[in-house]
Amino acid sequence: MKKLSEMRSVKTFYACLIVLLFWYVMHLAVGSAVIPSPGATIKNFIAIFPRTLALHLLASLGRVLAAVAVSLLLGSLIGIWIGTNKKADSLVTPILYILYPIPKIAFLPILMILLGLGNLPKITLIIIIIIFQFIIAARDSVLEIPKELFYSVLSLRLGRMDIYRHLIIPAALPKIFTALRISSGISISIIFFAENFASTYGIGYYIMNSWVMVNYVNMFSGILALSILGLLLFRCIDLLEARSCRWLKAGKNFIN
């Protein structure tokens, strides 16, 4: 476990160096204050983070976590339900296929009219966009369980709840974690857009406000903060998956 953690740290460090190098090359190539140097941005980031950036970042993080938590719970439950119920699948899945491609981000003005100008419309917007990821991931993972496995657990005379606990939920978890990664990235993109309307706190608001004020160092400091937020979320998801799906690691070790 320690060796794996060290390898991930080395890979993260390597990736950061590549990004910083590309950033520096772009800074030299453009030769304008529009793209400040990585050094100046990092120095400014450290200076403004405790009193300014941290507040905006926490506001965005709270909205993202609330939306992801609700979507994860409701989406997984609905997906498992329609995956184990043919009638529900035949009724709900066609509706999902119609609603899923709709660009729901356009509903933000309607949500703000109906729900007000606070956090609720922003959180709701994220939910109605990413919940489909969890529903479809959970549904597909349940439908992919071989019938032989159901026959095996039924032969053991396990109760319904035990079947969910020992077969259905473990089978659905890997795809749900994949949906969680995808949805986290989408959520950060959505919150960046949503915080540009009727907001005074949030990393999206801070970045765009810095752009309007022609303070590009602050703008890039906000982008850096957003990138770090995404990295930390992905690392947390990796840790949760490693603890929740330990059989996946055992399978990989066996294959290797």
Outline the secondary-structure elements.
Layout: H1 2-30, H2 38-84, H3 86-99, H4 108-115, H5 119-143, H6 147-155, H7 160-194, H8 203-212, H9 216-244, H10 246-255
Shape: globular
List low-confidence stretches.
none
- CATH architecture descriptor text: Orthogonal Bundle
Q: In the CATH hierarchy, what is the superfamily?
A: MetI-like
Estimated structural class: mainly alpha
How much is the average pLDDT? Answer: 87
Q: What would CATH call the class?
A: Mainly Alpha
- Share of helix, binned: over 70%
Give the gist of this structure.
The chain is built from ten helices and no strands. The protein has 256 residues and is mostly helical.
Keywords:
single chain, 256 residues, mainly alpha, MetI-like fold, 10 helices, 84% helix, globular
